[in-house]
Automatic annotation (TrEMBL):
Transmembrane segment boundaries: 17-39, 45-63, 75-98, 104-129
PANTHER family registered for this protein in UniProt: PHOSPHOACETYLGLUCOSAMINE MUTASE
Protein family (similarity comment): Belongs to the OB-RGRP/VPS55 family.
CDD domains: PGM3
SUPFAM superfamilies per record: Phosphoglucomutase, C-terminal domain, Phosphoglucomutase, first 3 domains
Protein name as catalogued: Phosphoacetylglucosamine mutase
GO cellular component entries: membrane
Organism in which the protein naturally occurs: Solanum lycopersicum
InterPro entries reported for this sequence: A-D-PHexomutase_a/b/a-I, A-D-PHexomutase_a/b/a-I/II/III, A-D-PHexomutase_C, A-D-PHexomutase_C_sf, AMG1_III, PAGM, Vps55/LEPROT
Superkingdom to which the source organism belongs: Eukaryota
Length: 673
């Protein structure tokens, strides 16, 4: 049931409620017939028992039906059990006593008892609806936090609010909580937590997030929180009040869910939930990072930092670069989400760049628009067409943490030339490498103690092989990690300057604190000794990039500005940029399996070590195709194994993927999809 689409899940729930209503109505009809058929209203005495039956539970146990099945020394709970039992016995005893006394006949007694058993069946069905594991959605906290149909999330968001307040207590820092479902459909929503660094919630706390989100009742929830607080040594007294910054995107369900999060936060004594309003996900992460560094955390300060660093980089463009008339024009698809609204406001603060924003909220969020749609479908989003051929276009996703570029192909309907996250990464890497080369030019000959920054590029196995080959040819160090932003971010943090991106357009640049201190010192020295020199400008550019880029998380707005600066610096059109390399054709398939954990991978998921022998078989298939590459990995959410294949032609990539899918089916024994 958890993976059932929201519409069908709602229909199924409505159907069950309708059946429950019919059962209750049937019980009432039987009760009335017991009186009306025999013109005797004494059987209505049983109604008193029906009315008093739930009262002890309501007044003494807070409507928690699980308390009836637990052992407890509480006198109130014992009283609840006694009175509930007495009412139940009374519902059966009254008709029997009335019959024994000759007040009613056999028919009335039969109808009375039938009515009672129908009501009992209704109660059991109701309890089953609430406690049935097939109906209850099991949630798992991942890179995107929790996501589901918005109607199912109120309790979960309340509980995540508690977690965020506990995390603030544990770290002694400000924590973030964002209500968004990014590129999902508008009926969905989600919630995720930002750690003090502005990054994602530490993986060590993800099991606790899963546990409290899926706790079956308030008693279990309280027990989990108490035990976890004890394990983590989280004290509730003598510490500074926990504070959580809250944000949400433009979804209609966002406001009530944010209120639920506030209630969860303030349920921890002294905790403060600060509403930052409607913001992009990267904005909230940036604000958390800024607050914990003692800086102003507001939307205006975010825009000021981006616009000032953008202006600095624009002022440092080389002179004499030839530009076409349309080079400063950019058309952006805002996905009808928060990013489009923010960019429409922000563009007024930018000079040297003309931005037209389309799909900025007048249509349906993520419906035929957005970076996810453009990257997967490789077609122009709604509102773009042949008339836009030749223009440089970009697309944000629903909460503005992904960015892709594209150009519409002339006379080809809605077909596009896609410039994805791999090429954004390549553009960034070339620019950073060039600035480091200028900064270090001649240093190795003059000073043996000069410091060479360690620049690294981080990708997953899903990065197109052509991009990886190109980056290596450019002399860049490329490291692969398992799939997932959390792995990319962690690996990028190991470098002085680490750049990571996924093909879907999510990524950023990280500067280590140690290297930034060294760079600032170098820049200060160059200002005093050789202001205006190529080296001093290179140092200024690198410092400005560290301010422009959002180092907390991938940010479509800051990323877009950096792309625009670099294109102007290079004097490149989008077509020239797209010609850096040509992607190899690829194909992705899913193979249904009985147990996905039977597949064990190594080397950043590029090699399958289990089942034994499957990698050798895959290698034999790869050898049949020029520049062939293929790997398998288990899904993290469903019992399927994912297959990714590349080759020099689309037919070859399709054939390779299909042959490896058959191998997976052969080794794991299930049907393929």
């Amino acid at each position: 049931m958890a993976d059932m689409p929201g519409y069908f899940r709602t229909c199924f729930q409505t159907g069950r409620l309708a059946c429950l209503a019919m059962l209750v109505s049937g019980g009432i009809v039987l009760q009335i017939l017991a009186c009306a058929l025999y013109n005797n209203w004494w059987p209505m005495l049983t109604v008193i028992m029906y009315v008093t039956l739930p009262m002890p539970l309501v007044f003494f146990a807070g409507s928690d039906t699980s308390s009836l099945y637990t052992e407890s020394g509480s006198c109130w709970l014992n009283a609840t059990k006694f009175l509930t039992g007495a009412s139940t016995v009374g519902s059966i005893a009254i008709p029997i006593i009335l019959k024994h006394a000759g007040v009613i006949g056999w028919g009335a007694m039969a109808l009375e008892l039938s009515s009672f058993f129908v009501f009992v069946l209704s109660i059991l069905c109701y309890l089953g609806m609430n406690e049935d594991d097939g109906y209850r959605v099991k949630l798992s906290y991942g890179t995107a936090g929790f996501r589901a149909d918005a109607s199912l999330l109120e309790s979960t968001v309340f509980r995540v609010g508690i977690l965020a307040a506990l995390r603030s207590l544990k770290t002694g820092s400000v924590i973030g909580l964002m209500i968004t479902a990014s590129h999902n459909q508008i009926s969905d929503n989600g919630v995720k937590v930002a750690d003090p660094s502005g990054g994602m919630l530490t993986q060590d706390w993800e099991p606790f997030a899963d546990a409290i989100a899926n706790a079956p009742d308030p008693r279990s929830l309280l027990q989990l929180i108490t035990e976890f607080a004890k394990e983590e040594d989280i004290g509730f007294e003598g510490r500074q009040p926990p504070e959580v910054l809250l944000g949400r995107d433009t979804r209609p369900s966002g406001e009530p869910l944010l209120d639920a999060a506030k209630q969860g936060i303030t349920s921890i004594v002294g905790a403060i939930g600060t509403d930052m309003g409607v913001v992009t996900t990267p904005q909230l992460h940036w604000m958390v990072r800024a607050r914990n560094r003692g800086l102003e955390a507001s939307e205006s300060s975010y825009f000021h930092q981006l616009s000032s660093s953008f202006r600095c980089l624009m002022d440092l463009k080389p002179e004499g670069i030839r530009k076409n008339g349309d080079d400063n024009a950019l058309v952006v698809d805002g996905a009808d989400g928060v990013g489009g609204e923010k960019l429409e406001h922000f563009k007024k603060m930018l000079t040297g760049l003309c931005i037209e924003v389309r799909n900025r909220g007048e249509g349906m969020l993520n419906e035929g628009v957005g970076a996810d749609y453009v990257q997967k479908e490789k077609v122009a989003p709604r509102g773009f067409g042949p008339a836009d051929a030749g223009l440089r276009c970009a697309s944000l996703d629903g909460d503005a943490d992904r960015l892709v570029y594209f150009s519409v192909i002339l006379n080809e309907s809605n077909k596009i030339e896609l410039v994805d996250g791999d090429k954004i990464l390549s553009l960034y890497a070339l620019f950073i490498k060039e600035q480091l080369s200028i900064l270090n030019d001649g240093e190795s000959n003059k000073n043996n103690d000069s410091y060479q920054a360690h620049l690294g590029v981080v990708q997953t196995a899903y990065a197109n092989g052509a991009s990886t080959d190109y980056l290596k040819e450019m002399g860049l160090e490329v490291v692969l990690t398992p799939t997932g932003v959390k792995y990319l971010h962690e690996q990028a943090a190991e470098f002085d300057i680490g750049i990571y991106f996924e093909a879907n357009g999510h990524g950023t640049i990280l500067f280590s604190e140690a290297y930034l201190c060294r760079l600032e010192s170098t820049h200060k020295t160059l200002l005093s000794t050789s202001e205006g020199s190529a080296k001093q400008k290179a140092a200024s550019r690198l410092l400005a990039v560290s301010q422009l880029i959002n180092q907390a998380v991938g940010d479509a707005l800051s990323g877009l500005l950096l792309v625009e600066v670099i294109l102007q610096y290079m004097g490149w059109s989008i077509c020239r940029w797209n010609e850096l390399y040509h992607d190899l054709p690829s194909r992705q398939l899913k193979v249904k399996v009985g147990d996905r954990t039977a597949v064990v991978t190594a080397n950043a998921e590029t090699v399958a070590v289990q089942p034994v022998g499957i990698q050798e078989a895959i290698n034999a298939e790869i050898a049949k195709y020029p520049r062939g590459r293929c790997f398998i990995r288990p899904s993290g959410t469903e019992d399927v194994v994912r297959v990714y294949a590349e080759a020099t032609t689309q037919d070859a990539a399709d054939a390779l993927a299909s042959s490896v899918a058959r191998l997976v089916d052969q080794y794991l024994g299930s049907g393929s999809a």
